[in-house]
Amino acid sequence: MENKEPGEDDFEDMTDGVLRDPAEYFFEYYDKNFWNVVAELTNLYHVQSNSKNLKANMNEILSFVGIEILMGTLKLPQAKMYWSRLFDLPLISDTLTRDRYFKLRNHLHFVNNLHDQDRSDKLWKVRPVINVFRNKCLALPRSKHLSIEEQMIPFSGRCAMKTYVPSKPNPLGLKNFILASSDGLVLDFIIYTGKGTVPDTELKEIGLGASVIKLLTETVPNNGQHVIYSDRFFTGIKSIEFFLSNNIHQTGSVMKNRIFDVASKFKTDCDLNRGEWDEYVREDKKLCALKWKDNKAVILVSSFVGSEPQVTCKRWSKVQNRSIDVPQLTIVKSYNFNMGGIDLCDRFMAYYRSNTRTRKWTIRLFNHFIDLAIINCWIMYKRTCAKELVPKCNRLSLINFRLNVANVLIKGSHVRGSSQLSKEIIFDEQEITDSSGEDEDNKPKRRKVVSMPRKPTRYDRIDHLPQYVEAKNASKCHFEDCKSHTRTLWKKCNVYSCVTKNNCFVKFHQQKL
User: What does the domain layout of the chain look like in residue ranges?
Assistant: First the structure.
């Protein structure tokens, strides 16, 4: 079969060449108009539920989102630990109180429940979040090599759309079919909601896998320069025939029962040694199917490339106890190189996933798309850095990119204009640049709430030393029965208590029997 290789992807040419601040990339997906609407609908839902106004504004919602991103990066076991005395983080605790954070999360809404909604759409509660993200994905340039696979959105609570895929690292959750480039950039997606995800006529005619591929590739140009890579769930003769009629190529592994007439002609696994293969080409030379054996045999079909030219790959031999060269086919090499886009995206998601425990699938879906947007932003940022020849040592890693976005959202700073940044970006991992401007200085600071010391520390009678604090206002004594104020701080317990008039220090540190 004659190869029709469309060439390698040049990701550097798929950017506008303007290097922007991380937060600017993020606001290209979810702009401030979106967050204003979210704030209004959150307040409306709180009024509908409690007859009281939550008085949330756009900056507070952005701070909440930034805290969610930061929590996904730091990964403490429980959300309330970020406000605990042991793990107190001023960037979080000074921005939102713990109760305010949970109130915002419990009442976060994206639609008006009282308006007429399309209840046949199972995702109507988060449809604005999905549509805004998808519209930006559809505007991204399509690379020559694209892959389609399913992604899991982990969730174990109550949800009618929840599925179980045992082969996935997160087997329980919502299934998301994704079209992505080979470097992990998400270009389109369909969330599986059961019956009605794809039209019933297509489901009966070509099956679920081919129907999903057909929907995801509607925005792929039919100029013969694009190849779709898929696994055995999506690949079949009907899907390849559909793509051939639209001048799009497909390569993928396939089940035996979908090409039974050809698969029955292949040599058995026992007749093939490692590196050997068996190939059949259709009479019109537009489609080939082959069986290649590595550790196990795999069957692949393609409409654009075959077995030639042959290359070699390194494999470990248990018999010879060393790495050996094994013959590898061009179709296998191309499939292995371009098929891992969704797996790469899943790996980035697994590093810093915003997965604070919640019973609401809407919150989990919202956090998932925020993380997905940050990954897309980071990939586009890397492409621009490569085009602008920014040294790799000066490029932001994914964790620093997330922290930068979280810092801007939490501090409520405004995104600057799309001005080109310097080619040499120096980013200090220990210090996040404060871009909040002069508004931060004028913001009233709340008095920090100091928790009571733990009992073993409070009553151990060791090293409870005083310190006089020259503060403008005296602090309230921490002894329960005292209403006086004092400037004497006991450093070990980090509490204020009287030491002269009422002698509260002794009473505070004396355990009641």
Answer: 11-120+345-410, 143-343, 455-508
